[in-house]
Design brief:
Blueprint: H1 14-26, E1 30-33, E2 38-41, H2 45-66, H3 73-102
Antiparallel strand pairs: 1-2
């Protein structure tokens, strides 16, 4: 992937990806389905998933257009994408944990 040492500051690009991914995961609506006993996506989640995919796909293309001569544009896009995946996973896990905690107990 890299032919030479990349600057350590390049890892800073994980931060905006994580923040954006955390927001996308945090705002993904989930709800407990008592009939099927599982957590499901609810409401506007399809729009958020589409936005997540668009950002993942568009990050590399946007960097290629915005900074065509940037030596590490591909690496920056990969780090932003990794941050998006990590942030969305953490945000969505928090939403699922809250949905599970709020479900009605099966015990009397």
């Amino acid at each position: 992937m890299l032919r030479e040492a990349a600057p350590l500051a390049l890892l800073g690009w994980l931060v905006p990806g994580r923040l954006l991914g955390l927001g996308l995961g945090w705002f993904t609506a989930v709800a407990w389905n008592p009939v099927e006993a599982r957590v499901e996506l609810a409401g506007r989640s399809l729009l958020l998933i589409a936005a997540y995919v668009a950002v993942r796909v568009g990050a590399g293309a946007l960097l290629a257009v915005a900074a065509p001569d940037a030596a590490y544009a591909g690496d920056i896009a990969a780090l932003v994408g990794a941050g998006l995946v990590f942030g969305r996973t953490v945000g969505l896990a928090g939403r699922i944990a809250r949905a599970l905690a709020a479900r009605p107990s099966a015990l009397p």
